[in-house]
Amino acid sequence: PYKDSMDRAMNLILAESSVSMEVGRPSSLLGNWASDALFVNQTRTVKLSEPIFCLLNTGGLRSSIGKGPVTLGDIFRIMPFENSVVWLRLPISSLDKIEYYLQQSGGEPISNASMFQGRFSVNNVTEETKFVWVITTDYLANVGDRMDFFQDAVERNDKKTLLRDIFIEEAKTQKNLIVSPEKRIQ
């Protein structure tokens, strides 16, 4: 009975996907969807005077999404971890460290930022910008995947919301997954 109940819950259709999405480097459809879903969810009602971007890790996305119905089970397969969302306020100098990291790793999922010809940039950064906010996970904020630049944070806001729950919420909201084919890292 427990297995039948779990199967019914995991087969619940949350949304549709018009394309198959796999995770990969330097950027991918699934990485773009995941980072955009987190970014949009977290900034929907927030207005900050400093630039904001999202940085996740390719290794944290553990499956793919096929074309067609997207089920609760699909989201659990993509994000089987209990990672929660964290906002970090970093000095602008940390962007150089993130740029170097992305060069070395071969790319990670990002939103509201890009990397072209080895140069990392965050939307809305100007010469006057002193700090940026990055939305990520507690695993990465705690130096997971050797993202030690997060130790530069001058402020940390743990949201106590699971990344998986945000993916579920955004899939339901979107109904047809909004997937950007943009090559954010090249």
In short:
By secondary structure, the chain is α+β, with helices and mostly antiparallel strands. The chain is 32% helix and 25% strand.
Uncertain spans, ≥5 residues at pLDDT below 50? none
Total number of strands: 9
Helix segment tally: 6
Beta-strand content bin:
15-25%
Helix content: 25-40%
How does the major sheet shape up? 5 strands, mixed
| Mean of all residue-level pLDDT scores | 96
Query: What is the CA-CA span between the terminal residues?
Result: 49 Å
Shape: globular
Structure description:
The chain has 186 residues and is an alpha+beta fold. The chain has helices at residues 2-10, 29-43, 72-78, 94-105, 138-141, 163-174; strands at residues 13-17, 52-55, 68-71, 84-91, 110-111, 113-116, 119-122, 131-137, 155-162. The strands form 3 sheets. A 5-stranded mixed beta sheet has the order 5-2-8-4-9. A hairpin with a 2-residue loop joins strand 6 and strand 7 (119-122). The longest helix is centred in the first third of the chain and has 15 residues, at 29-43. It is globular. The relative contact order is 0.26.
Question: Which helices and strands appear, and what pairs or packs with what?
Answer:
Elements: H1 2-10, E1 13-17, H2 29-43, E2 52-55, E3 68-71, H3 72-78, E4 84-91, H4 94-105, E5 110-111, E6 113-116, E7 119-122, E8 131-137, H5 138-141, E9 155-162, H6 163-174
Parallel strand pairs: 2-8
Antiparallel strand pairs: 1-3, 2-5, 4-8, 4-9, 6-7
Helix pairs in contact: 2-6
